[in-house]
Amino acid sequence: MSTKDFVEKDYYKVLGVPKDATEAEIKKAYRKLAREFHPDANKGDLKAEERFKEISEANDVLGDPKRRKEYDEARALFGNGGFRPGPGAGGNGSFNFDLGDLFGGGPGGTQGGPGAGGFGGGLGDVFGGLFNRGGAGTRTQPRRGQDIESEVTLSFTEAVDGATVPLRMSSQAPCKACSGTGDKNGTPRVCPTCVGTGQVSRGTGGGFSLTDPCVDCKGRGLIAQDPCEVCKGSGRARSSRTMQVRIPAGVSDGQRIRLRGKGAPGERGGPGGDLYVVVHVDAHPVFGRKGDNLTVTVPVTFTEAALGGEVKVPTLGGPAVTLKLPAGTPNGRTMRARGKGAVRKDGTRGDLLVTVEVVVPKDLDAPARDALEAYRKATAAEDPRAELFQAAKGA
User: In angstroms, how far is CA 73 from the centroid of its own chain?
Assistant: First the structure.
């Protein structure tokens, strides 16, 4: 719907109210007509559906005091639907005047050109705010590109230290065959339904309206006159590209990373969408992870646990560290090697958590067996389960 069409329509007549009707009278008339011609009450009746659209359109303008004032001023300027014939209008008494000139669509209607009548970019710019709620008249608007989601699988070490990985992505991008216009000749026309904005408003009752993408141009604001054979007039085609993506250090399995502007390209100068990368991390045969800390289980002998000593512990991608094992260390005790864990967001590292696992030998030779028998006799008076039974009786 062009601005010219809006000015020429009599919304008071559509709602059946006088020009001096109050807001309450306008609201009452709209509600009555909306109930009568609502599509749900007239299923399959195309005339009723069209009438409901006209009623909603009229309410959108007259139900808003500011828009109503601008509409009344525009109607007064155009003499209720067009300029009146005046002296010198023409031999047959008709007024041969093209409204397209005033709205910037004819000779002399270009911005700042002769015949602009002191209105700069034409009256289309003056009334653009009235009929597009702050839109840009018939100018097509930039469109943001779509968001893309991809997945990447990293090794355990890459996840801890960070890595740059190639990602091959497929997304909708401006069609190269028609330069994104959707038209084979590169000359699409402005959508007459949304006047190039890509959006249409619909009334919901009570003076409110919702804005939806235009169904005729699918939100593009343009319609191909001779549709491109590659993109079928959409202006967008499937495109594949490979991008080197830096995965930051310290990512965890299942984490979703957002890369702004790295998604599908926008249209008509619009910004690109965002790229979301879901990270999968392979397990490590030795190390595990708890947040910013790495974990490792280190086997020790019975004598090392009982008598104490020093044990070497591997680290991820670095030299081994030596930990001092206190005498009488129990099985399952966890010690900490500071600064040997995963990288944090601030660049520092977490810790390496070392869990002791006492190994019980399966096969003993004669000297080892004799030594253990001697140890058993020496400690026969000690009962490690005495406290257990005492606690059980007390319970």
Answer: 41
The whole-angstrom separation of Cα 389 and Cα 223 is: 87
Residue 235 is assigned to a ligand binding site: no
Q: Is 214 part of any known ligand binding site?
A: yes
- 178 annotated to a ligand binding site: yes
- Last residue of one domain, picked from the residues 262, 281, 300: 281
H and E: helices and strands count for the chain: 11, 15
Distance CA 17, CA 59 (A): 11
Give me the DSSP letters along 204-229.
Answer: EETTEEEEEE-TTTTTSSEE-SSB-T
Tell me: is residue 194 an annotated ligand-binding position: yes
d(CA 224, CA 367): 94
Give the pLDDT band (50/70/90) at residue 352: very high
Closest C-alpha to 244, from 164, 155, 338: 164
pLDDT tens digit string along 205-232?
556 678 888 888 877 778 888 888 888 8
Domain check: are 217 and 309 in the same one?
A: no
374: containing domain:
288-378
Provide the whole-model pTM.
0.49
191 known ligand binder: yes
